[in-house]
Amino acid sequence: MKPTFYLTTPIYYVNDVPHIGHAYTTLAADVLARYKRLKGYDVFFLTGSDEHGQKVEKAAQAAGETPLELADRVVKRFQALWEKLGISNSDFIRTTQERHKQGVSHIFKQLMDQGDIYLGEYEDWYCTPCETFWTETQAEDGKCPDCNRPVEKLKEESYFFKMSAYGERLLAHIEANPDFIQPRTKRNEIISFLKEGLRDLSVSRTSFSWGIPVPGNERHVIYVWFDALTNYITALGYPDASGNFGTYWPVDVQLIGKDILRFHAVYWPTFLMAAGLPLPKKVFAHGWWTVEGQKMSKSLQNVVEPNMLIDKYGVDVVRYFLLREVPFGLDGDFSHASLISRINSDLANDIGNLLSRSTAMLVKYFDGALPAPGQLTELDLALKSKAETMITTVDACMDELAFSKALQAIWEVIGAGNKYIDETTPWSLAKDPANQERLATVMYCLLEVQRLIHSLVAPFMPETAHKALICLGWTAEISQHDLVWGRLAAGTMINKAEALFPRIETKE
Ligand code: ME8
């Protein structure tokens, strides 16, 4: 039986349309999912949409729709983008689906029955025009942080989750499992937060109605984060453990942006502890993208639309750029200049050129039939050994979610391949029939190294790798057993490759 691997993205709010920030998390998850499948795992990859709560209710009101009409409309845009980006998710959960609502009611009721959720009173600052509660610190100077109008102290009946009872256990868990929260700086933030002690958490609202009703008290709807976080188990069929839930839980990796770490590293694990369920193995919070040095926002009108980028540059360029440009876990900046520079140097020059040069030579010197290699020289062995190192380095990087470092390791071998051509000068070997065996060896090494390169490029740029591997005469699925030197058989017919990536001409 294959080992399982379950990974998730956040479920995105349907009050906003997808932008590169959302695409980034989903893309990173997709690359990891594809890599794990290649390594022989039975992968379950979940994404979805977060459709309840006041934000969505308000956005629907503003658009003159019901919340569900709004959700139906926006969710299609997310799903269409994921398809266009080549996202290979196994399922897509919507929090308005029956399977989700039932699972949420189930866990909420269990926690109520065992006394971990109790009815109490919520007292905080309230902005009536905005219908929003604010904490003491948020409502600084007695003003609403949204509209700046005065707030008043208000009491509201609310259900509370006994989060305070789980803080110490969670802290002990984090300390005993150094890889649970990553990267390390984020882990430290959560540890400091927990050391201050946890308060009980208000987990229901009565001020609006767009949500899942509290079991047995329909005046309350369940707090949107309690509802949303539970998606990671309801999508697996929780509470029924006979199917996917039994197979895939606990989740191996939860990918999120740094903005929602506290929800995933504090609230979610304490809910799970209370429910007696195992905790996620890893939560990884990545950084945020700015655009040309500025925060991405609707009011600045600088929101980068992935559809537009894909139409202009192609899906693999977008996939490559987002994962190569910034080390996963750090903040990064999106700029057109750096995108174009990556296209021209890494893609057109490095990986594209290597393939077109070498396949053209093979067609020219051997009529497209891959020759068997002779004895490998030191130069050839050095290339082979670089390819082998790449395979182990990429594997280690993927375990750490160091996508950019993995790509760097692949590009080092691409660079070595181009250098190998310059050093072996096949065009001069071809001039003398006495060098035929040496030429055969050189050509074999050149094509075999690219088979390995493109096998590892495949999770990042599936279309590009597919095109390249077909030129290299490799039509089989890529499997981990083929991640060894020498699998490309002599006699394989090789096709001359078209340029994989056209250069983008820019005015100085
Ligand atoms: O928070 N850079 O949904 P959301 C990088 N529904 N990533 C970004 C980004 C940026 N500028 N902007 C957004 C929610 N993201 C909740 C989640 S999960 C149970 C519920 C990404 O639509 C990043 O992954 O606001 C962030 O965590 C997510 O989008 C927030 O999406």
Please characterize this protein's 3D structure.
The chain is an alpha/beta fold and 508 residues long. It has a domain at 335-482: Isoleucyl-tRNA Synthetase, Domain 1, CATH 1.10.730. The protein has 18 helices and 16 strands. The chain has helices spanning 20-38, 54-63, 67-84, 98-113, 167-176, 184-195, 224-229, 231-234, 244-248, 261-275, 306-313, 315-325, 336-366, 378-399, 403-424, 426-429, 436-457, 462-471; strands at residues 4-13, 42-50, 91-94, 117-127, 132-134, 152-161, 181-182, 201-202, 204-205, 213-214, 217-222, 253-257, 283-286, 289-291, 294-295, 332-334. It has a six-stranded parallel β-sheet with strand order 3-2-1-12-13-7, sandwiched between helices. The chain has a four-stranded antiparallel β-sheet with strand order 5-4-6-8. A three-stranded antiparallel β-sheet has the order 9-11-10. Strand 4 and strand 5 form a beta hairpin. The longest helix is centred in the C-terminal third of the chain and has 31 residues, at 336-366. The radius of gyration is 27 Å and the shape is elongated. The mean pLDDT is 95. The structure holds ligand ME8. Residues 10-13, 16, 21-22, 24-25, 50, 228-229, 231, 256-257, 259-260, 288-289, 296 line the site of ligand ME8.
Write the layout of secondary structure elements.
Layout: E1 4-13, H1 20-38, E2 42-50, H2 54-63, H3 67-84, E3 91-94, H4 98-113, E4 117-127, E5 132-134, E6 152-161, H5 167-176, E7 181-182, H6 184-195, E8 201-202, E9 204-205, E10 213-214, E11 217-222, H7 224-229, H8 231-234, H9 244-248, E12 253-257, H10 261-275, E13 283-286, E14 289-291, E15 294-295, H11 306-313, H12 315-325, E16 332-334, H13 336-366, H14 378-399, H15 403-424, H16 426-429, H17 436-457, H18 462-471
